[in-house]
């Protein structure tokens, strides 16, 4: 494998991700506070990497709820929004007993694809623990197939996030 193809598969340097995250507008971020409990951490007291994904999901579901989309209602309508792509970057460890803010925002909608960004940071915003991005796709629960379009009630509510 050439050096060129190896470098293209690597993550960008942490400094590039941090500078991008810090230049993003923050007025549309939804903030979800979390605390690292003992069951979130390994034997060294460091938060296990998979817990960040759970917190990101919780923040996204709560953000949707804040604009009138109850996930249970979405499921009852026959629509599911599974994650089809995930990118996550760990910048600094979060330890048992610490608190953090999971910030999330919808960044774009492209048909039935919905893009969300995340930042997990200290309450004073001085420490950045994790950055991430997910792509969701609207799926018909019964047929298990991608919908041709978002249900109008969902699309109308999501427009509120982009204002």
Compact summary:
The chain is built from five helices and eight strands. It has helices spanning 3-9, 14-23, 49-66, 71-76, 152-159; strands at 30-35, 79-80, 83-90, 99-110, 113-121, 128-137, 139-140, 145-146.
Structural write-up:
The structure is a single chain. Helix content is about 30%, strand content about 30%. It has 5 helices and 8 strands; from the N terminus they run ααβααβββββββα. It has helices at about 5-10, 15-25, 50-65, 70-75, 150-160; strands at about 30-35, 80, 85-90, 100-110, 115-120, 130-135, 140, 145. A hairpin with a 2-residue loop joins strand 4 and strand 5. The chain is elongated, with a radius of gyration of 17 Å. The protein starts with a helix and ends with a helix.
Question: Layout of SSEs?
Answer:
Layout: H1 3-9, H2 14-23, E1 30-35, H3 49-66, H4 71-76, E2 79-80, E3 83-90, E4 99-110, E5 113-121, E6 128-137, E7 139-140, E8 145-146, H5 152-159
Antiparallel strand pairs: 1-4, 2-7, 3-6, 4-5, 5-6, 7-8
Largest beta-sheet details: 5 strands, antiparallel
Order of helices and strands: HHEHHEEEEEEEH
The portion of residues assigned to helices is 25-40%
- Note the overall shape: elongated
Low-confidence stretches: 1-26
Features:
163 residues, alpha+beta, 5-stranded antiparallel β-sheet, 3-stranded antiparallel β-sheet, 8 strands, 31% strand, elongated, disordered N terminus
């Amino acid at each position: 494998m050439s050096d060129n193809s190896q470098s293209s598969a690597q993550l960008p340097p942490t400094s590039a991700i941090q500078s991008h995250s810090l230049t993003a507008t923050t007025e549309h971020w939804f903030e979800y506070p979390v605390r690292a409990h003992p069951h979130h951490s390994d034997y060294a007291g460091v938060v296990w990497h998979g817990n960040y994904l759970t917190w990101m999901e919780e923040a996204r579901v709560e953000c949707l709820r804040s604009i009138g989309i109850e996930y249970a209602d979405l499921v009852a309508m026959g629509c599911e929004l599974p994650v089809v792509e995930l990118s996550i970057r760990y910048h600094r460890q979060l330890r048992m007993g610490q608190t953090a803010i999971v910030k999330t925002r919808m960044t774009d909608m492209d048909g039935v694809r919905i893009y969300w960004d995340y930042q997990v940071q200290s309450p004073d915003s001085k420490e950045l623990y994790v950055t991430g991005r997910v792509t969701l796709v609207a799926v018909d629960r019964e047929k298990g197939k991608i919908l041709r379009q978002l249900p109008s009630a969902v699309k109308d509510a999501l427009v509120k996030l982009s204002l």
